[in-house]
Each structure stands twice: as C-alpha cells, then as structure tokens.
Amino acid sequence: MTIGIIGSGAIGAAFARTLARAGIEATISNSRGPESLNELVQDLGPSIKAGTREEAARADIVFIAVNWTKLPAALAGLPDWSGRIVIDANNPIEAPLFKPVDLNGRVSSEVVADLVPGARVVKAFNHLRAAVLAGDPRSDGGRRVLFYSGNDSAAKAEVAALIDRIGFVGIDLGSLTVGGKLAQFPGGPLPNQNLVKVG
Fold it and tell me: Is the pLDDT at 96 greater than 80, yes or no?
C-alpha cells in the first residue's frame, strides 16, 4: 500500500509526521515542487520523501489537505483516480479570517468528491488541530480518537487500519453526508474535540 500527500501545510505535515513515527513510507507534495520540501523531509526522516503532485496522486491512498480555495487547482489535471482512496482532511474555511464558505447546503466532502471523480473518498484527520494530530496519540492512559466517514465500506476499512497502525483509535461516523457534517469545521459538533479512548 502506497501513500501520497497533497499539501505540505500544517495538517499535511502533521499527517506525514504521524506516518514517519510509525515508519510508514509516503510521498509528500505541494504546489511549489519537491525542492521546496527538502527541509521538511529531512526533519521527518527517511520514510517520507518529497515528490510532485502527480507522483503523490498515483498512490493507493492519497491524503489531501489544501487551503479550500486552492483545492480545484491542486487537484486539476491529475491521473484518473480509478477507485483509489482519497482521504479528505479539508475544511471549508481559511485563515486568517476563518469565514465559512457557502456550500449551498452540501457537506464539504461531497464538494471534494466532485473534484476527484472515480475516487473512494473518506473524510478523516480534519477535526483535530495540527499540533494535536502530530503529537503522541497515546495519552492520558489511552489512545486519541480520530473520526472517519465515507460511502465505501472497504475504503473506510483501509483507512481505519491505517489509523490503528499509526496509534490512534478510529470511530466510524457513517456516510459522508452524516459523518462529514458531524466532523466538518465550521458547523459540526466534533471539531477540536480531543477525545481519548481508555482501555
């Protein structure tokens, strides 16, 4: 199983750090090219390499964390998705104003799914702040919780296995429409809920 990351900002880098801690290989990319990521990948260690957007997008699981308004450009012209898994870690909001984007009643993951036709989209890794996500998932006598949702049960099972492998506890929130609404920021009740499963 190969993993690609599109977006090297706070969340993309935090996800890469959790993978690196578990010794899992991945290719991280951004809009500025692999050379701009030299310092980051040196810091992360040997399991994470820098690549192009196209290289990251060819992976079996592609993690996407890009500023909301830059998503269409970041996902334009990529190889056919052909049933590969896309982890949508995006929220329809942007710094510095954090003004919600009007999605006309849609859940943000439904909008993202339209940008990656043919992919199996799983919403995950978007409800925790980057610093918490990058930290040790084992805390307070248990393991930190990560929520996920999606419409494809096999894709969700693969993401759940990855969540477990990097030390978190995954909780399935159901479909994108239901779970995406619960975990979406702004509007959902679950963002920034730093929960730990004990026992």
Answer: no
